Amino acid sequence: MPGFETLAVHAGQPPDPATGAVVPAIHLASTFAQSAVGEHQGYEYSRSGNPTRHALEACVAALEGAAHGSAFASGLAAEDATLRLLDPGDHVIVGDNVYGGTHRLLAQVHARVGIRFTPVRLDDPGAVEAAWQPQTRLVWVETPSNPLMRIADIATLAEVAHRRGGRLVVDNTFATPYLQQPLSLGADVVVHSTTKYLGGHSDVVGGFVATNDRSVGERIAGLQNAVGAVPGPFDCYLVLRGVKTLAVRMERQCANAARVAAMLTEHPAVAAVHYPGLPGHPGHAVAAAQMRDFGGMVSFTVRNGEQAALAVAGATRLFTLAESLGAVESLIEHPHRMTHASVAGSELAVDPSLLRLSVGLETVDDLLADLAQALDAAG
Ligand code: P1T
What CATH class is the domain 247-378? Predict the structure, then answer.
């Protein structure tokens, strides 16, 4: 089996046999000629299948160790397809700290067609057992979670889900397959926002579903075609291009994030730092066991409350104030008012004094200096 970096560069994209081109072509065609009715070269219509999309699907599936992979127009489209595996009356146990849009998708879209869900702290497997209902079909976990960086034990949750007759879905957006391969730990389905580390350059929105379960893989591919939330060929090309450098980007982003987390723990304006690489993080041991490194995301609370947090977010010069994460440039955001505004006011609301950092590839000393001046000025 080739190594991760080899798969990232080559899986699904051999040189073009017709021209020798070493990068996959962007096949813009929406339709493909048939020599007789039903006789074609594997492609009929680009919603059903597109060569550039297939290259991406083969590549990311290989990185996740998956037999089946389907690309979607966004992370939420990938999540939506996965939730459509359920029937009315089915119940989902979902992490109580997930991307705000994931909760919104459950609460405002799937709940309307009879899907029920219970948010649970997933770093406590006992809480999952306690929340289990006869109709529970899925456990949905983000690890590390957005934005609190909580760690859930994937193998333990898979064991609980399977013993009870359910499936485990892991949103692997924060970790990426370079740091963590949920299917090898027992998860049934992996979902991604490829908008983040896989794309890696803040220039494309996309999603992905990977699985080794044939019936799930076939249903997801069927939904991709039937519902039609497919990414365009150029978007597929951008994600493929990003994936080639995933390993080297991730290594440096982990190293930079570790330095940022260490610096924040020392700063007097900071109350708490959430980074699984810190030995005091409650999920440190599990993260060390199931991840290659601890990731490029860090969140922290400031001592002086929401106004101080907003002031810090407005005072950084190198960290750009923006939603999203996982790209080459460093970002700062205020989850309570931005990415998690859809849960503000609910029991899942995020602490208003929390800030989230996506640590990028700039010179780390510049990043540290920028945070220090912003905290000194505003914290
Ligand atoms: O934005 P989209 O590609 O649709 O992906 C949704 C999504 C799914 N899962 C996780 C863990 C995510 O973080 C996201 C999107 N998150 C942000 C935009 C953000 O800034 O947190």
Answer: alpha beta
Residues of the chain with pLDDT under 50: none
pLDDT in tens, 300-310: 999 999 999 99
Q: Where exactly are the structural domains of the chain?
A: 4-243, 247-378
- Cα of 37 to ligand 1 centre, how many Å? 42
Cβ(93)–Cβ(118) below 8 Å: yes
CATH topology of domain 4-243: Aspartate Aminotransferase; domain 2 (3.40.640)
CA gap 210, 202 in Å, rounded: 22
pLDDT digits (tens, 9 = 90+) for 216-248: 999 999 999 999 999 999 999 999 999 999 999
Tokens found for residue 347: 């029991």
The span from the CA of 49 to the CA of 285, in Å, is 42
Cα of 98 from ligand 1 centre, angstroms: 9
pLDDT of residue 379: 66
* CB distance 199 to ligand 1 below 6 Å: no
Is-contact 152 98, C-beta < 8 A? no
* All residues at 6 or more sequence positions from 283 whose CB lies less than 8 Å from its CB, including other chains: 123, 143, 144, 149, 150, 151, 152, 276
pTM of the model: 0.98
| Protein residue with its CA nearest to atom 13 in ligand 1 | 99
